[in-house]
């Protein structure tokens, strides 16, 4: 798939930055003219991934979180959230609904389930002691104006 | 996020506005619990109809307040008329634990 546009954002793992991260991603995705529901779904998924990095990957430390956004042809959006924290021992287990390593801290254990529900595809790679990368994909439904499908308005691709 | 607390004949109504995420959950947890455990409160209604955003940290926050209320033998219910927030709560399965109504009147009756 050809990349038509991209962005990269680096934030410190402070919970104050959750709102900033999801709003920044929403603004990036806005160029595809998504519905309000689609924007909120993406914002929620980003919030879940960033919160996981803050709460689980870095715990009491402050580290770096990198958020990348890519827009491919055919209205496909990819959001990647990477941290360099403690990593996940068992990714399959972590993705189970209601699973949490912090039951005493009001964690719902629904973070990955929410990401999977609201995005089309979620890939998680993690290495203990090195960090975690969550890649999420979603196709924005093509909007129609007066019955005519709106073309994706990006001339050419980007070599990256 | 901000909230308004209204007392009505033993029922505490907490109306939350804005965005309920991890940051705001941490900021408001203690303030909510202090109101919920107050002796004159018999029932708690949390109205989340005016939330503009919520993620699973928000679900953890609501379940946490439900547990606080239960520990003090008080009933806690939710009011939500926002279709998106309702859909989100269903995704997280919160209705299995906490009763949810569409209007405050329904929750009070």
TrEMBL record, chain B:
Record InterPro entries: Anti-sigma_ant (IPR003658), STAS_dom (IPR002645), STAS_dom_sf (IPR036513)
SUPFAM superfamilies: SpoIIaa-like
STAS domain boundaries: 1-109
PROSITE patterns for the chain: STAS (PS50801)
Pfam families cross-referenced by the UniProt entry: STAS
Family assignment from sequence similarity: Belongs to the anti-sigma-factor antagonist family.
NCBIfam families xref list: ant_ant_sig (TIGR00377)
Record protein name field: Anti-sigma factor antagonist
